[in-house]
């Protein structure tokens, strides 16, 4: 199975700051990755690179076999679905949820005068249904709760049938019920062999859906650990990445972490 995404010795610098420092990482077909690390570790920067939204200062980024800088990114971008806070801000508040999803087929964020095929509208509705927001299809995006918006965004990211699905902090700001419903939907997606390669960014091990197979742990723009999830999400690696002594528990396919000794009285 070939690499779907690859960073080879990638660095990103802004002024005198090195945001990513010599990062090498590869993602293969069928894998579901979580990118984990503290604030400012470089997670969003990694996602922007593999979404084709950012060029590295040095090193090589390859997306579905095409090297960034040597290929037309506008052709590559529809193959990579992205849901992020930055996208949320670009989506028009007055647009219906169904239009937020269907416009992704055209790579745009606002519906204008295009005519959509019935097939596209049906697919958008099915995707909204899959994420439990089908009954909100006619509601305007601006009137949705943050949890509902997240789900509409994921439906949108899946609309063009991408080869890669990138989710930057999909559970941020959700209440416990909203988070768990989203985890269930993402677990189902992760377990479906027809789903695209998935990469999900989070700060919290509790926000990793069951079925995720690999983890990339970042600290200060460098790779702390990368590989099969059970080898990466150890107390040693997580303590080193987050800079405090952590205990980690795994229950079935879900994780939790807390400061070592904090549960004792
Ligand atoms: N254009 C820029 N100029 C200077 N510094 C930047 C720029 N963009 C990002 N950074 C810095 O790079 C670091 C990594 O940012 P990034 O957003 O990738 O981290 P992150 O791990 O996603 O953080 P968070 O968890 O807080 O969202 C941060 O310290 C950020 O302030």
UniProtKB/TrEMBL annotation:
PANTHER family listed in its UniProt record: SKFA PEPTIDE EXPORT ATP-BINDING PROTEIN SKFE (PTHR43158)
- Record-given protein name: ATP-binding cassette domain-containing protein
Organism whose genome encodes this protein = Georgenia subflava
Sorted keywords for this record are: ATP-binding, Nucleotide-binding
Q: Where is the ABC transporter domain?
A: 5-245
Q: Name one GO molecular function term.
A: ATP hydrolysis activity
Pfam families assigned to the protein according to its UniProt record, in alphabetical order? ABC_tran
Gene3D superfamilies in the record:
P-loop containing nucleotide triphosphate hydrolases
The superkingdom listed in its UniProt entry is: Bacteria
Q: Which SMART domains match?
A: AAA
